[in-house]
Amino acid sequence: MMNYMAATPRADSAVSEQLINAEADSIPPPRAPVFASRPAAIITGLSLVLIAFNLRPVFSSASALLPEIIAHTGLSSFGAGVLTTLPVVCLGLFAPLAPRLAQRIGAERTLLAVLLLLAFGTALRGFQSLPLLFVGTALAGACIAIGNVLLPGLVKRDFASRTGMMTGLYTMALCAGAASAAGFTLPLQRMLGGSWSLALGAWAIPALLVALIWFPHAFFRKVRTKHAGFRVEGLWRDPLAWQVTLFMGLQSALAYCVFGWLSPILRERGLDGVTAGVVVSVSVMVQVFACLFVPSIAVRCKDQRFVSLSLIALAVTGLLGFLFAPLSTVWLWAIVQGLGQGGLIAVAMTIIVLRSADAHIASHLSGMAQCIGYMLAAVGPLLVGLIHSLTGSYSATAVLFVLLGLGVAIFGWGAGRAAHVNARTIAI
Q: Do the domain assignments include residue 116?
């Protein structure tokens, strides 16, 4: 029998716990560093924010240049769909490795390796070679998967007294990275003599610079070997856990359709490349505001069902507006879609916390939702490419967006119920 509870009494704690600690099961538990001075704390906080900035350009930079990549390499629309899908698949495949790597070599050193390999994978995309483009994209996606899992826990651990502020900065950095790549990659290509590959590879430079900043923090801090001291039973057999996972996966599918294909959709409709990139940037930055205010609304409701339905309606309406409404209204749809999509991401993360009885269950439910959810999310951009390849137009993707929206609504209704997943934490 599920343990039903009201969400409202947990409102404050849910907001502060939105950053899920992937090392919750570690024994001994990871300790926050003792900063020698205020500037040291500021540098560490800034480093974490800059790391977050580098976890999104891989997605939106390729999207901004998809028409150029297709024209210069002969890549089919389906092949382009595989390219946009590949890093999302890696998010699901490699996320489970993050806690194990952190337990063996420490979260800080793992993040340093992530930054270096992310820079290397991104640089491989700069050699104007299709095989290296795919290899570099996969390597970058694997690094982002590990960073996605570990970084929120570090932000929460190192700045426990500033969780709200750091959550906001972390979220803004993620969106700023995506928006910057969407808006500046095409102008960067023109500055580099029209080379799409150099424009993609240039995004390795910020990751490498942040790795240099992070190096002292990673290597001059004593690391204690940890092991998993807890296990969670019953999670994978629980229907509510699967509803949370499918809600996360399907809303992510919509999100990565936007990251991967919105710019090509707008360009096919007649917008020039730079304007299309700016529209995507605006939509992504609007997500920041939704991520900041939606959780506080969601946790104060009796449950999150109607919040989820309202947000998915906005997200799908915005996508349909991009496809069929007059181009003169495109800025309106950028705001509508950004509010809906950003709110969905925030609600999905908040629901993981609200449906969990303790931090250990939240960590495992987050791992389940990311592993299965991102594998499911990868289908979205792949299907967009397949539909365009079969029909020669993006208009038919409206059916896909509506079906994904219905799936998000159905599983969001189940995941939004005020209940705990039927799982328990056991010390080992």
A: yes
